[in-house]
Amino acid sequence: MTIMLSPGRIDLGALERLYRGTEPVRLDAAAYDRVADSARTLQKALTSGNAIYGVNTGFGKLASVRIDDDKLSVLQRNLVRSHAAGFGSALPGPIVRLILILKLISLGRGASGVRPAVVALLEEMVGADLLPVIPEKGSVGASGDLAPLAHMALTMIGEGDAVLEGERMTASAAFAAAGLKPIELAAKEGLALLNGTQASTALALAGLFDARRLARASLVTCALSVDAAMGSSAPFHPDIHSLRGHRGQIDAAQHLRALLDGSEIRDSHVEGDERVQDPYCLRCAPQVIGACLNQLDQAGRVLETEANAATDNPLVLSDGSIVSGGNFHAEPVAFAADNIALAISEVGAIAQRRVALLVDPALSFGLPAFLAPDPGLKSGLMIAEVTSAALMSENKALANPRSVDSTPTSANQEDHVSMACHAARRLMDMNLNLSGILAVEAMAAAQGIELRAPLQTSARLAHHIDLIREHCAPLDEDRVVSHDIEALAQWLRRNDVMSAA
């Protein structure tokens, strides 16, 4: 089923479906009309004889060099070839697919001056699952994601490499196999494809979508840990959170209450428990996880706006003028990516402290050391907790802001840059680490609850323990647990675990 795109009105839910799905896409008719109008405006401007940046001039520091009309197509082809200077491993297919779709949306705003044939080719490539090979490094997030988007454009002109239905080959072979034809770029079209924040935005959106999924999953692992530790549900009372008023905190507490409702473990020690308060990793979970959810929501609003934006240069404006500006500067994306990174790090940090609590007999209220059935002879989850600490520490370092960095490029013409692309790209590693931390917490909490038998947890949490046991057996004897951690981490990344509750 083809997904119709209306640039300027595409929400986060639709963007996540586009990221996780494989359906073909198409711009709506109104967008095609705007694209055609802007192309006619650009062609008319070319006949005036005036210099138009990047259309009949050189680029960046070479903007003062005028290009003859009969060389404008060569100018665009040279631009694409020279700027395809990326480095490193290829970006994952779903990210590349989202880059193509975001470029399609941006050009569909009708402010870029490209012909309808350019957006039609992007649609065809998405529909055929023909994805450019784009190296992951090379953008500083300033005059657009130049190097990554140049590799995208290189494929569109039939050069470079592409992946067709999972197989890497030359772009020309991929086009032939898909029954498509590369495009010969006209005036400004190479620049319109290269300028823009689509690589940074695609990476940031992917980081956001996966972080939201894992943050929600952490509410489940947290509830499991609360019950395993015989923690109190009193700190989740709705009035406490209403008195503060933060939406994410209120929602997090509500989910924790619902998950724990009906637990025999909790009911067994309401009376006579000598503990007055639980450690912060249990008691303050709604405040911390809720703040992270709020942070992700704010970043989502920024990225939704950016995904719908025209971010190349110059832009064809509604009054017919063609004006150079700076919409390609990815500062909003860099800030959003840094904020997502902070949230990922904090969700993992408080989860890791819950793991540490569960394996420590001084804190776990009667559970054996390291959750081992025979501590001493058996080490249980001793080193699994260490692994979670290593992942937490790595995420703390990765959470350091990238947006405050800058370095002059292009002979000082581009003298302040955002670093948005690698700010967003590091979110992939951070989410991977977070899934590992939550996997260890799921193992530990499920083990702890089972050690409370014959007392039973809530029906909702029992359901989640059943799901955990599909990927990880109880730890009756010491064994290699790296396979269990990996299996649970993959399950957490691939599923909306909170919805399954």
Please name the defining characteristics of this protein:
501 residues; Fumarase C, Chain B, domain 1; Fumarase C, Chain A, domain 2; 2 domains; 9 strands; 6% strand; elongated; histidine metabolism; L-Aspartase-like; EC 4.3.1.3; Fumarase/histidase_N
Structural class: mainly alpha
Rg = 26 Å
Distance between termini?
30 Å
Number of strands: 9
Average pLDDT reading: 94
Number of helices, counting only DSSP H or I runs of 4 residues or more: 20
Can you offer a commentary on this structure?
This protein has 501 residues and is mainly α. Helix content is 56%, strand content 6%. The protein contains 20 helices and nine strands. The protein has helices spanning 12-20, 29-46, 72-83, 93-107, 116-128, 146-156, 171-178, 189-194, 198-228, 238-244, 247-260, 264-268, 280-283, 285-307, 331-359, 382-398, 420-450, 459-469, 482-494, 497-500; strands at 3-5, 25-27, 87-90, 130-132, 135-137, 161-164, 167-170, 315-316, 322-323. The strands form four sheets. It has a three-stranded antiparallel beta sheet with strand order 4-6-7. Strands 1-2 form a two-stranded parallel sheet. A two-stranded antiparallel ribbon has the order 3-5. Helix 4 (93-107) crosses helix 9 (198-228) and helix 16 (382-398) packs antiparallel against helix 17 (420-450). The protein is elongated and about 85 Å long. Its EC number is 4.3.1.3. Keywords: Cytoplasm, Histidine metabolism, Lyase. It is found in: Cytoplasm. InterPro entries: Aromatic_Lyase, Fumarase/histidase_N, HutH, L-Aspartase-like, Phe/His_NH3-lyase_AS.
